[in-house]
Write a structure and sequence with these properties.
Layout: E1 14-15, H1 25-35, E2 44-51, E3 55-62, E4 71-76, H2 86-98, E5 105-109, E6 112-116, H3 125-128, H4 131-145, H5 159-176, H6 178-185
Parallel strand pairs: 1-5
Antiparallel strand pairs: 2-3, 3-4, 4-6, 5-6
Length: about 190
């Protein structure tokens, strides 16, 4: 894809589509009709990787998940924008991809993003203990941490700020619900 229509350029394609998290297939097919117009609807397969309270992650493909061109559709969980800056998240996807450290992001839509499926293996504990593996992981982490932020981007660590914000949200959600507040006082 060229930068003007999605992919690795600064201007990301945004599709005005909302995907129903309870019945995502129809909305996902609408997205794929724009991202992969050559895919025929009856041949499109979907595999749910995660279905949690924060995100759903669904792999979409024709033929096999191992073939190139698979699309991951991430549906944002309800109200996660309260503690996740989605614009910053998309920007980080683009920065990592530009440095060869992450998947290509194809588009955003009303309640999620679509990006490249990167094939790989889950690393079990036994593999993680092997020097040849943990050295590769350390090298990749070093590469990620050496990426310089764009001018105007915060350069100070965000961990404590984010954790404080999250804890404030948690505290305010508990105090808003009198039944929960009564339970926490016991």
């Amino acid at each position: 894809m060229d930068p003007e229509h999605g992919g690795s350029g600064d201007q990301l394609l945004h599709l005005d589509v909302a995907v129903d998290e309870r019945e995502p297939r129809r909305g996902i097919l609408d997205l794929l009709s724009k991202l992969r117009p050559e895919w025929k609807t009856p041949h499109i397969q979907m595999k749910t990787f995660t279905e949690g309270i924060t995100n759903q992650l669904i792999g979409c493909y024709v033929g096999s998940l191992q073939e190139p061109g698979c699309v991951l559709v991430r549906l944002y969980g309800r109200m996660t924008e309260l503690y996740v800056n989605r614009d910053r998240e998309v920007e980080m996807f683009q920065v990592f991809q530009a440095h060869g450290c992450g998947p290509e992001i194809y588009c955003s839509f009303q309640n999620g993003i679509c990006y490249e499926f990167v094939r790989g293996n889950v690393l079990e504990d036994e593999l993680l203990r092997q020097p040849s593996i943990y050295r590769l992981i350390a090298a990749e982490m070093g590469k990620i941490h050496s990426i310089q932020p764009k001018r105007g981007q915060p350069t100070e660590p965000q961990l404590w700020t984010k954790m404080s914000h999250f804890l404030t949200l948690m505290k305010s959600s508990i105090t808003r619900n009198p039944a929960e507040q009564a339970c926490t006082k016991r």
